[in-house]
Specification:
By secondary structure, this protein is an alpha/beta fold. Helices cover about 25% and strands about 25% of the residues. The chain starts with 6 loop residues before the first helix and ends with a strand.
Length: about 350
Amino acid sequence: MVRPRGRFRFLRQRVRVLDRPVPWGRRRGPPLCVRLPRKTSLRSARGGCALVWRALRATLEEMFKLAWRVPNFAMMRGTAPAKAVTPQKPVVQETPVKFRSGKHTVIVKEVFDIAPKFPQTYLIRFTFENEPVFDFEPGQFISIFAEKDGKRISRPYSIASWPENKDYLELCIKIVEGGFMSNYLYHVSPGTKLQSIGPLGRFVIPEPIRYDTVFVATGTGVAPFIAMMGHIWEQGLDDGRDFTVIFGVRYVHDLIYRDLMEKWEREHPNFHFYPTISRPETPDWKGRVGYVQKVIQNEITDYGNKQVFICGLHDMVEDVKNLCQRLGFAYVRFEKWD
């Protein structure tokens, strides 16, 4: 064996000083544990040889990090520190879809308010010109086009009806103050023809359904879940799985599709409907009060065997997504808008 000389001789000395064998090459081993003499500093180790520093840097930095996180962490112990355990993040998946989008001429069939006293959210139903309602997967959306000041604009809307219903395509739309499309469609006359593109989107439920499923929505974000559940009941896809809809709104009159979901709850013992109101304006409301995050923590258990779908405004989706990841749901899927 050739005797190390020059910088390599210094390397051998430095290894002896640090009381730590340095792995050569690209070999990967278990986490290192370094015993440093009291007078040895990181600067002296770094200045001696780049190889020693590369071998020790990650370990030392990790040990310093653990010292802040782990109570009573002993930095100078001779045994390797326990590896920090972090909960495994649930998988956020995109599901391949069966149907491709195309251009269609849709005809307004009817427009009606969900709560006539509070015309803030309405349903609009379309038929298709010279063709049946297109095939789509529940959870997908359609883009509707209209002319404004000589410009062609479009807005996407989730489909609330399920694919088995070939009589019409139903959208659930909230009137946005100053929003052109939501106000235009609210006042459009039956028989009006509009251009559209669809179906679009990958926010669909994988089949067969292998997990109990939790749907979390606010406002019109419940629309794709209505389509999913209608499809599940029509096709008998529940297969003993539990399905839960957690639906948060500001006021009681904002609970769109309430009657339908309460009907499903009566008819299907494996379906659970948890509405919650953030601003109850009447003492007649005896249900849950607060945000959907609170309902998830209070009502849902066994997170690791459940998948969750989230749909609604951006901030809510981000908060609920992060919460579900911390709780350890098996799969997290979401759709959000500004």
